[in-house]
Protein backbone atom coordinates (compact mmCIF):
# COMPACT_ATOMS: atom_id res chain seq x y z
CA UNK A 1 0.00 0.00 0.00
CA UNK A 2 1.45 3.37 -0.96
CA UNK A 3 1.54 6.10 1.65
CA UNK A 4 1.90 9.79 0.83
CA UNK A 5 1.95 12.42 3.60
CA UNK A 6 3.68 15.17 1.57
CA UNK A 7 2.47 18.64 2.54
CA UNK A 8 0.94 17.51 5.86
CA UNK A 9 1.76 18.75 9.33
CA UNK A 10 2.87 16.33 12.06
CA UNK A 11 1.00 17.48 15.17
CA UNK A 12 -0.24 14.31 16.91
CA UNK A 13 -0.44 10.64 16.01
CA UNK A 14 -4.25 10.60 16.22
CA UNK A 15 -4.12 12.41 12.83
CA UNK A 16 -2.27 9.50 11.16
CA UNK A 17 -3.34 6.02 10.12
CA UNK A 18 -1.56 2.88 11.31
CA UNK A 19 -0.06 2.45 7.82
CA UNK A 20 1.23 6.03 7.78
CA UNK A 21 2.88 5.50 11.18
CA UNK A 22 4.44 2.20 10.05
CA UNK A 23 5.70 3.93 6.89
CA UNK A 24 7.44 6.61 9.02
CA UNK A 25 9.06 3.95 11.24
CA UNK A 26 10.36 2.03 8.19
CA UNK A 27 11.55 5.25 6.53
CA UNK A 28 13.44 6.09 9.73
CA UNK A 29 15.20 2.71 9.51
CA UNK A 30 16.13 3.52 5.87
CA UNK A 31 17.61 6.88 6.88
CA UNK A 32 19.51 5.19 9.72
CA UNK A 33 21.12 2.80 7.21
CA UNK A 34 22.07 5.68 4.89
CA UNK A 35 23.67 7.59 7.78
CA UNK A 36 25.57 4.55 9.08
CA UNK A 37 26.79 3.65 5.57
CA UNK A 38 27.96 7.23 5.00
CA UNK A 39 25.68 7.58 1.94
CA UNK A 40 24.82 11.24 1.29
CA UNK A 41 21.08 12.01 1.28
CA UNK A 42 20.72 15.71 0.56
CA UNK A 43 17.23 15.13 -0.87
CA UNK A 44 15.81 18.51 0.23
CA UNK A 45 18.59 20.80 -1.00
CA UNK A 46 17.42 24.41 -1.36
CA UNK A 47 14.72 24.19 1.31
CA UNK A 48 14.84 25.98 4.69
CA UNK A 49 13.30 25.21 8.06
CA UNK A 50 12.85 27.13 11.31
CA UNK A 51 12.90 25.63 14.80
CA UNK A 52 10.76 27.58 17.27
CA UNK A 53 11.54 26.54 20.85
CA UNK A 54 9.64 27.92 23.86
CA UNK A 55 11.12 25.21 26.12
CA UNK A 56 14.68 23.86 26.37
CA UNK A 57 15.90 20.78 24.45
CA UNK A 58 18.96 18.69 23.65
CA UNK A 59 17.75 15.72 21.55
CA UNK A 60 14.88 17.34 19.65
CA UNK A 61 16.75 20.48 18.68
CA UNK A 62 19.93 18.61 17.67
CA UNK A 63 17.90 16.04 15.70
CA UNK A 64 16.07 18.72 13.72
CA UNK A 65 19.32 20.63 13.12
CA UNK A 66 21.49 17.69 12.05
CA UNK A 67 18.58 15.97 10.28
CA UNK A 68 17.83 19.16 8.36
CA UNK A 69 21.48 19.71 7.44
CA UNK A 70 21.95 16.06 6.36
CA UNK A 71 18.95 16.54 4.04
CA UNK A 72 20.70 19.61 2.57
CA UNK A 73 18.44 22.23 4.16
CA UNK A 74 19.17 25.57 5.79
CA UNK A 75 18.17 25.64 9.47
CA UNK A 76 17.28 28.61 11.74
CA UNK A 77 16.97 28.07 15.53
CA UNK A 78 14.88 30.48 17.60
CA UNK A 79 15.51 29.91 21.29
CA UNK A 80 12.99 30.34 24.14
CA UNK A 81 12.06 34.01 24.36
CA UNK A 82 14.00 35.17 21.29
CA UNK A 83 11.16 35.52 18.77
CA UNK A 84 8.34 38.09 18.81
CA UNK A 85 5.73 35.34 19.19
CA UNK A 86 3.47 35.75 22.20
CA UNK A 87 4.60 39.10 23.60
CA UNK A 88 4.46 41.26 20.46
CA UNK A 89 3.04 39.06 17.71
CA UNK A 90 0.14 36.61 17.73
CA UNK A 91 0.59 32.93 16.94
CA UNK A 92 -1.47 33.42 13.79
CA UNK A 93 0.69 36.30 12.50
CA UNK A 94 3.91 34.48 13.41
CA UNK A 95 2.72 31.46 11.41
CA UNK A 96 1.87 33.61 8.38
CA UNK A 97 5.29 35.31 8.47
CA UNK A 98 7.36 32.14 8.97
CA UNK A 99 5.31 30.33 6.32
CA UNK A 100 6.36 32.98 3.76
CA UNK A 101 10.05 32.49 4.56
CA UNK A 102 10.42 28.78 5.39
CA UNK A 103 9.37 25.43 3.91
CA UNK A 104 8.71 23.85 7.34
CA UNK A 105 8.30 24.95 10.96
CA UNK A 106 9.09 22.99 14.14
CA UNK A 107 7.42 24.12 17.38
CA UNK A 108 8.20 23.04 20.96
CA UNK A 109 6.24 24.68 23.73
CA UNK A 110 3.05 24.73 25.69
CA UNK A 111 -0.55 23.92 24.70
CA UNK A 112 -1.37 21.65 21.76
CA UNK A 113 -3.74 24.43 20.62
CA UNK A 114 -0.69 26.61 19.84
CA UNK A 115 0.93 24.12 17.45
CA UNK A 116 -2.49 23.44 15.88
CA UNK A 117 -3.01 27.18 15.33
CA UNK A 118 0.46 27.55 13.81
CA UNK A 119 -0.35 24.72 11.39
CA UNK A 120 -3.73 26.22 10.41
CA UNK A 121 -2.08 29.50 9.42
CA UNK A 122 1.43 28.68 8.18
CA UNK A 123 0.64 27.22 4.76
CA UNK A 124 3.68 24.90 5.17
CA UNK A 125 4.12 21.71 7.26
CA UNK A 126 4.42 22.27 11.02
CA UNK A 127 6.03 19.60 13.25
CA UNK A 128 5.22 19.21 16.95
CA UNK A 129 8.52 18.97 18.83
CA UNK A 130 6.64 18.55 22.18
CA UNK A 131 3.61 20.22 23.71
CA UNK A 132 2.02 19.84 27.13
CA UNK A 133 -0.26 17.13 25.70
CA UNK A 134 1.81 15.23 23.12
CA UNK A 135 5.35 14.36 21.95
CA UNK A 136 4.74 12.64 18.58
CA UNK A 137 8.24 12.76 17.03
CA UNK A 138 9.51 10.86 20.09
CA UNK A 139 7.09 8.03 19.26
CA UNK A 140 8.49 7.28 15.82
CA UNK A 141 11.97 6.96 17.35
CA UNK A 142 10.62 4.84 20.20
CA UNK A 143 8.76 2.43 17.94
CA UNK A 144 11.83 2.10 15.68
CA UNK A 145 13.81 1.19 18.82
CA UNK A 146 11.22 -1.40 19.90
CA UNK A 147 11.14 -2.85 16.36
CA UNK A 148 14.95 -3.12 16.36
CA UNK A 149 14.81 -5.10 19.63
CA UNK A 150 11.90 -7.46 18.88
CA UNK A 151 11.63 -7.47 15.06
CA UNK A 152 7.92 -6.63 15.43
CA UNK A 153 5.52 -4.31 17.25
CA UNK A 154 2.02 -5.79 17.22
CA UNK A 155 1.11 -7.89 20.25
CA UNK A 156 3.88 -6.52 22.46
CA UNK A 157 3.06 -5.17 25.95
CA UNK A 158 4.46 -1.72 26.76
CA UNK A 159 3.99 -0.39 30.29
CA UNK A 160 4.55 3.24 31.22
CA UNK A 161 5.39 3.74 34.92
CA UNK A 162 4.87 7.02 36.77
CA UNK A 163 3.25 10.27 35.62
CA UNK A 164 0.94 8.56 33.12
CA UNK A 165 -0.90 11.77 32.22
CA UNK A 166 2.07 13.55 30.66
CA UNK A 167 2.86 14.20 26.98
CA UNK A 168 5.03 11.09 26.56
CA UNK A 169 2.55 8.72 28.23
CA UNK A 170 -0.38 10.14 26.23
CA UNK A 171 1.56 9.70 23.01
CA UNK A 172 2.64 6.15 23.87
CA UNK A 173 -0.99 5.22 24.53
CA UNK A 174 -1.98 6.55 21.09
CA UNK A 175 0.90 4.94 19.17
CA UNK A 176 0.45 1.56 20.89
CA UNK A 177 -3.28 1.60 20.10
CA UNK A 178 -2.56 2.48 16.47
CA UNK A 179 0.00 -0.32 16.14
CA UNK A 180 -1.92 -3.15 17.80
CA UNK A 181 0.18 -3.15 20.97
CA UNK A 182 -0.93 -3.64 24.57
CA UNK A 183 -0.45 -0.34 26.40
CA UNK A 184 -0.53 -0.26 30.18
CA UNK A 185 -0.38 2.92 32.29
CA UNK A 186 0.91 2.08 35.76
CA UNK A 187 0.70 4.78 38.40
CA UNK A 188 -1.54 6.40 40.99
CA UNK A 189 -5.15 7.13 40.01
CA UNK A 190 -4.53 10.91 40.05
CA UNK A 191 -1.84 10.60 37.37
CA UNK A 192 -3.80 8.69 34.74
CA UNK A 193 -4.48 10.02 31.21
CA UNK A 194 -7.68 11.99 30.51
CA UNK A 195 -10.73 9.66 30.23
CA UNK A 196 -11.63 11.07 26.80
CA UNK A 197 -8.21 10.22 25.34
CA UNK A 198 -8.37 6.77 26.99
CA UNK A 199 -11.76 6.09 25.33
CA UNK A 200 -10.46 7.21 21.94
CA UNK A 201 -7.45 4.91 22.28
CA UNK A 202 -9.63 2.00 23.44
CA UNK A 203 -11.74 2.40 20.30
CA UNK A 204 -8.62 2.45 18.10
CA UNK A 205 -7.14 -0.56 19.92
CA UNK A 206 -10.38 -2.52 19.40
CA UNK A 207 -9.78 -2.16 15.63
CA UNK A 208 -6.06 -3.03 15.66
CA UNK A 209 -6.00 -5.94 18.13
CA UNK A 210 -4.28 -3.86 20.82
CA UNK A 211 -5.53 -2.93 24.28
CA UNK A 212 -5.36 -0.18 26.90
CA UNK A 213 -5.06 -0.94 30.62
CA UNK A 214 -4.84 1.52 33.51
CA UNK A 215 -3.61 0.12 36.81
CA UNK A 216 -2.19 1.23 40.14
CA UNK A 217 -0.71 -2.25 40.69
CA UNK A 218 3.04 -2.48 39.98
CA UNK A 219 2.74 -6.26 39.65
CA UNK A 220 0.01 -6.00 37.02
CA UNK A 221 1.93 -3.31 35.11
CA UNK A 222 5.27 -5.13 35.10
CA UNK A 223 4.02 -8.67 34.61
CA UNK A 224 4.92 -9.95 31.13
CA UNK A 225 5.89 -6.47 29.84
CA UNK A 226 8.20 -6.44 26.82
CA UNK A 227 8.91 -2.72 27.22
CA UNK A 228 9.12 -0.87 30.52
CA UNK A 229 9.07 2.88 29.95
CA UNK A 230 9.25 5.81 32.32
CA UNK A 231 9.71 9.59 32.21
CA UNK A 232 10.57 12.44 34.50
CA UNK A 233 8.11 13.04 37.40
CA UNK A 234 7.72 16.81 36.85
CA UNK A 235 7.61 17.93 33.23
CA UNK A 236 8.84 21.16 31.67
CA UNK A 237 6.39 23.99 32.31
CA UNK A 238 5.12 22.49 35.58
CA UNK A 239 5.92 24.37 38.83
CA UNK A 240 8.90 23.18 40.91
CA UNK A 241 6.58 23.13 43.96
CA UNK A 242 5.10 19.90 42.56
CA UNK A 243 8.26 17.89 43.33
CA UNK A 244 7.30 17.07 46.95
CA UNK A 245 3.86 15.72 46.00
CA UNK A 246 5.11 13.85 42.93
CA UNK A 247 7.93 12.19 44.89
CA UNK A 248 5.39 11.01 47.45
CA UNK A 249 2.90 9.80 44.82
CA UNK A 250 5.26 8.32 42.25
CA UNK A 251 8.08 6.75 44.34
CA UNK A 252 6.16 3.41 44.52
CA UNK A 253 6.28 3.41 40.68
CA UNK A 254 10.05 3.82 40.35
CA UNK A 255 11.52 1.44 37.76
CA UNK A 256 14.03 -0.69 39.68
CA UNK A 257 15.50 -4.20 39.50
CA UNK A 258 12.43 -5.71 41.22
CA UNK A 259 10.10 -4.21 38.59
CA UNK A 260 12.33 -5.38 35.73
CA UNK A 261 12.41 -8.84 37.33
CA UNK A 262 8.62 -9.19 37.01
CA UNK A 263 8.64 -8.40 33.26
CA UNK A 264 9.22 -10.67 30.24
CA UNK A 265 12.68 -12.31 30.05
CA UNK A 266 13.59 -10.18 27.02
CA UNK A 267 12.21 -6.91 28.46
CA UNK A 268 13.86 -3.64 27.42
CA UNK A 269 13.98 -0.41 29.43
CA UNK A 270 13.14 2.85 27.65
CA UNK A 271 13.11 6.53 28.63
CA UNK A 272 12.72 9.57 26.38
CA UNK A 273 15.45 11.34 28.43
CA UNK A 274 16.60 13.46 30.16
CA UNK A 275 16.47 11.25 33.27
CA UNK A 276 17.07 11.65 37.00
CA UNK A 277 18.85 8.32 37.61
CA UNK A 278 21.63 9.86 39.72
CA UNK A 279 22.58 13.16 41.37
CA UNK A 280 24.86 14.45 38.57
CA UNK A 281 22.49 17.31 37.66
CA UNK A 282 21.67 20.51 39.54
CA UNK A 283 18.01 19.46 40.00
CA UNK A 284 19.02 15.89 40.93
CA UNK A 285 21.50 17.18 43.52
CA UNK A 286 18.95 19.64 44.93
CA UNK A 287 16.25 16.92 45.22
CA UNK A 288 18.78 14.63 46.90
CA UNK A 289 19.54 17.34 49.48
CA UNK A 290 15.88 18.25 50.10
CA UNK A 291 14.22 14.82 50.00
CA UNK A 292 17.08 12.38 50.69
CA UNK A 293 16.67 10.36 47.45
CA UNK A 294 19.50 9.83 44.95
CA UNK A 295 17.44 8.29 42.14
CA UNK A 296 13.94 9.12 40.99
CA UNK A 297 11.88 7.57 38.16
CA UNK A 298 14.53 4.88 37.44
CA UNK A 299 17.43 3.49 39.44
CA UNK A 300 20.96 3.96 38.14
CA UNK A 301 21.28 0.14 38.09
CA UNK A 302 18.42 -0.27 35.58
CA UNK A 303 19.41 2.81 33.55
CA UNK A 304 22.95 1.44 33.09
CA UNK A 305 21.91 -2.21 32.65
CA UNK A 306 22.14 -4.31 29.48
CA UNK A 307 18.31 -4.15 29.22
CA UNK A 308 18.45 -0.38 28.78
CA UNK A 309 18.20 0.89 25.19
CA UNK A 310 17.96 4.60 26.06
CA UNK A 311 20.91 5.74 23.95
CA UNK A 312 19.74 3.79 20.87
CA UNK A 313 16.41 5.52 21.45
CA UNK A 314 18.12 8.93 21.64
CA UNK A 315 20.06 8.30 18.42
CA UNK A 316 16.86 7.19 16.71
CA UNK A 317 15.35 10.63 17.37
CA UNK A 318 17.57 11.98 14.61
CA UNK A 319 16.76 9.28 12.04
CA UNK A 320 13.03 9.51 12.70
CA UNK A 321 12.85 13.32 12.69
CA UNK A 322 14.69 13.20 9.35
CA UNK A 323 12.07 10.75 8.06
CA UNK A 324 9.20 12.96 9.26
CA UNK A 325 10.72 16.05 7.61
CA UNK A 326 11.45 14.21 4.36
CA UNK A 327 8.01 12.58 4.12
CA UNK A 328 6.17 15.85 4.68
CA UNK A 329 8.45 18.13 2.59
CA UNK A 330 9.39 15.96 -0.40
N1 LIG B 1 13.40 13.40 24.61
C1 LIG B 1 13.46 14.72 24.32
O1 LIG B 1 12.55 15.31 23.73
O2 LIG B 1 14.63 15.30 24.70
P1 LIG B 1 14.95 16.86 24.66
O3 LIG B 1 14.07 17.53 25.69
O4 LIG B 1 16.41 16.97 25.00
O5 LIG B 1 14.65 17.38 23.29
N1 LIG C 1 7.53 14.82 29.93
C1 LIG C 1 8.78 15.48 29.67
C2 LIG C 1 9.36 14.99 28.37
C3 LIG C 1 10.70 15.58 28.04
C4 LIG C 1 11.25 15.07 26.74
C5 LIG C 1 8.57 16.98 29.65
O1 LIG C 1 7.61 17.45 29.04
O2 LIG C 1 9.39 17.68 30.26
Structural class, by secondary structure, is alpha/beta
Q: Low-confidence parts lasting 5 or more residues at pLDDT below 50?
A: none
Across the major sheet, the strand order is: 7-6-5-8-9
Q: What's the level 1 CATH class of the largest domain?
A: Alpha Beta
- Major sheet summary line: 5 strands, parallel
Number of helices: 13
The shape, in one word, is globular
Could you report the average pLDDT, rounded to the nearest whole number? Answer: 97
First-residue to last-residue Cα separation? 19 Å
What's the count of strands? 9
CATH superfamily of the largest domain: Aspartate/ornithine carbamoyltransferase
The structural domain count equals 2
- H-E order: HEHEHEHEHEHEHEHEHHEHHH
Structure description:
The protein is of the alpha/beta class and 330 residues long. The chain folds into two domains: 13-134 and 316-329, 3-Layer(aba) Sandwich (Rossmann fold), CATH 3.40.50; 150-312, 3-Layer(aba) Sandwich (Rossmann fold), CATH 3.40.50.1370. It has helices spanning 18-37, 59-70, 91-101, 112-122, 136-150, 167-178, 195-208, 218-222, 242-250, 257-262, 282-291, 300-303, 310-329; strands at 48-53, 74-78, 104-108, 126-128, 157-161, 182-186, 211-215, 227-230, 268-271. The strands form two sheets. A five-stranded parallel sheet has the order 7-6-5-8-9. Strands 2-1-3-4 form a four-stranded parallel sheet, sandwiched between helices. β5, α6 and β6 (182-186) form a beta-alpha-beta unit. α1 (18-37) crosses α5 (136-150), α1 (18-37) packs across α13 and α6 runs parallel beside α7. Bound molecules: phosphoric acid mono(formamide)ester (CP) and norvaline. Norvaline binds at residues 130, 166-168, 231-232, 235-236, 272.
